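Recall that a protein's primary structure is simply its ordered list of amino acids. Everything else, from secondary elements to tertiary packing, is in principle encoded there. The following example makes that idea concrete.
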Amino acid sequence: MSKKDIETRSDVHVLVSSFYDKVKQDQLLGSFFLPIISDWDAHIERLTTFWETSLFMTRKLPEKYYGNPLEVHVQVDKNNNHQITDLHFGIWLNLWYQTIDELFEGAVADNAKRRARKMGTFLYLKIFEARQ
C-alpha cells in the first residue's frame, strides 16, 4: 500500500506528534524532554510550525517559526551537566526516520530526513563548541 507525501500542516502535525510520542517513551531521550516540557500541546504546535516552515519555505504560510533552537538545545545540555552525546542525536534521528517511514513517502518526506540529519549534526557540533 502506497503512502502519501507530507503535503500540509496537518501532515506535519501528525509527523511531529507521532515522533514525540516515541521520544517520550524512549528511556534516554525522555529523560531530557519530560522534565522540561510541561505543555506538550504547545510544544507540538511550536515544532509543527518549525517543521512546516522548514519543509515549505517557498509557501506563504499563515504562521512562520521564529526562534533559536540552538540556544534552547545548548541550555538543555548545560542544565543536564553536558550529558548530551552523539548517541542521543542518533536515537533522535532514528526515531524521526522511523516515524517518517511509518507514515509518509515522497520528496518532502525525504527532505524531512535530510533536514533532520543536517540539523542534528549542526546542533551537536554547536553544543560541543558551547562547552569550551
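Residues 9-130 form a domain with the Globin-like fold (CATH 1.10.490.10). The mean pLDDT is 92.
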